[in-house]
TrEMBL record:
Transmembrane segments: 19-37, 57-80, 100-121, 141-162, 169-191, 197-217, 244-263, 275-298, 318-339, 351-373, 385-407, 413-431
Name this polypeptide is given: MATE family efflux transporter
InterPro entries referenced in this protein's UniProt entry, alphabetically: DinF-like, MATE_fam, MdtK-like
Subcellular location: Cell membrane
Keyword Transport on entry: yes
Molecular function, one GO term: antiporter activity
A Pfam family the protein falls into: MatE
Recorded GO CC terms: plasma membrane
Keyword Transmembrane helix included in the entry's annotation: yes
Keywords of the record: Cell membrane, Membrane, Transmembrane, Transmembrane helix, Transport
Family: Belongs to the multi antimicrobial extrusion (MATE) (TC 2.A.66.1) family.
């Protein structure tokens, strides 16, 4: 058997060590985030069904409000990593502070929009008459924590750009623990009900934001970086985030269309779809952890002017993505009969679930490539291409998905449409990385 040359093997091992060192803590922090909602659900669930239904509506609205601003983490990671690669740590931290100031401004704007419109938003989202008051209460209180949530996103991007994913893990674990304790204490100990759960989450998010700010401020003082807001820098951060905002909104539209189509297929199908989507999202966390490592590593290489290093890192991470996809796909395929009963005992739901999960399993290697190349291009600051690629993907997916019920297809056909969507994403991202146009070196793109 022909072996790879020793220098190539050493380079591969170096990339492996970097990927593992960044990806493992990133995965931990990613998993910790949805645990916030899980804790709230567990605590509020014992108050009653209307309270739990109200939480479901409010949490969906909050998740949407915050997720559209995930570019605060992605764009900041890429920009900071470039300056780290260029050897300019003061400029890297200044860039990060611009992102944090932008997060505070956006958070204030979201509060101003949500507080007066909360009842209308809850009603529009379809909350029942009994659940609506609880949803409105939770939404209004939790909205006060949105600036902290956005600061957490931006500050996480700063630390990832500085090649530090351990601190976000520690902060996420601390925030999750504080959230659990505060929820139990305020809901039951203080007798505040669903309002206590909302206040507990707000306090936990503010504590996380404060912890991040302490770390960033210390770094700024150590390297002589200014903490004052800079209008030009904030504007540049916003401009860099716009393409990623378009990408995120397009991806959210894909998921919303898929859920709307599943709802038209019947109650059993929408129930099965929600289970599949939950598992699909969980699998995405594993892929996203490697993609986050890619953002930080690629940005650093390009900032240092190392084109070949960026290419080699990209190739290695794609190999990781394919391997992770194969392993996860096999696990899902083999474990389907074991974990499906944990979600539902209804045979009408179990039937389509069993076959649909096989589609998810088969397409995991494609998903692995998509997530990795997405992270590589984000790390390169190639947001404009990512935006256009996702818009094209949405334009191709929408008519195919909407045709599923018209043609008599079921949930399996819908998820084959999802597989088509991921394949289109893979092709658009692969063409871009193969072209080399994403490789722009220097401290800024």
């Amino acid at each position: 058997m022909t072996q790879a040359p020793a220098p190539a093997r050493r380079t591969g091992r170096r990339h492996d060590r970097e990927i593992i060192a960044l990806a493992l803590p990133a995965f931990g922090s990613l998993v910790a985030e949805p645990l916030f909602v899980m804790v709230d659900s567990a605590v509020i669930g014992h108050l009653g069904t209307p309270q739990l239904a109200g939480l479901g509506v409010a949490a969906a609205l909050l998740t949407t409000a915050v997720s559209v601003f995930v570019f605060l983490a992605y764009a900041t990671t890429a920009a900071v990593a470039r300056r780290v690669g260029a050897g300019d740590l003061p400029a890297a931290i200044r860039q990060g502070m611009d992102g944090i100031w932008l997060a505070l401004l956006l958070g204030a704007a979201v509060i101003a929009a949500v507080l007066p419109t909360a009842p209308w938003l809850v009603e529009t989202f379809g909350a029942s008459g009994t659940a609506a008051p609880y949803a409105t209460t939770y939404l209004r209180i939790s909205a006060l924590g949105i600036p902290a949530m956005l600061v957490v996103l931006a500050a996480t991007g700063v630390l990832r750009g500085l090649q530090d994913t351990r601190t976000p893990l520690y902060v996420a674990v601390g925030g999750f623990s504080a959230n659990a304790a505060l929820n139990i204490g305020l809901v039951y100990g203080a007798g505040l009900g669903i309002a206590g759960s909302a206040w507990g989450t707000v306090l936990a998010q503010c504590g996380m934001a404060a912890a991040y700010l302490v770390v960033v401020v210390r770094g700024a003082r150590r390297h002589g970086a200014t903490l004052r807001p800079d209008a030009a820098g904030i504007r540049a951060s916003a401009q860099a985030g716009v393409p990623l905002l378009v990408r995120t909104l397009s991806l959210r539209a894909v998921l919303m269309i898929a859920t709307a189509v599943a709802a038209r297929l019947g109650d059993a199908e929408i129930a099965a779809h929600q289970i599949v989507l939950t598992l699909w999202s969980l699998l995405a966390f594993a892929m996203d952890a490697i993609a986050i490592a890619g953002q930080a590593i690629i940005g650093r290489y390009l900032g240092a002017g190392d084109r070949e290093g960026a290419r080699a890192a990209c190739r290695r991470m794609v190999q990781w993505g394919v391997a992770a996809g194969l392993v996860l796909g096999v696990l899902v395929a083999l474990a389907r009969p074991l974990f499906i009963p944990l979600f539902t005992a209804d045979p009408a739901v179990q039937g389509p679930l069993l076959t649909t999960l096989l589609v998810v399993a088969v397409t995991q290697p494609v998903s692995g490539i998509v997530f990795i190349l997405d992270g590589v291009l984000m790390g390169a600051g190639d947001g404009r291409y990512l935006a256009w690629a996702m818009v094209v993907t949405l334009a191709l997916f929408a008519p195919v998905a909407l045709a599923v019920p018209l043609l008599g297809g079921g949930l399996v056909a819908l998820w084959w449409a999802m597989a088509l969507m991921m394949t289109v994403r893979m092709l658009t991202l692969w063409l871009r990385t193969r072209s080399g146009r994403w490789i722009v070196t220097g401290a800024s793109r």
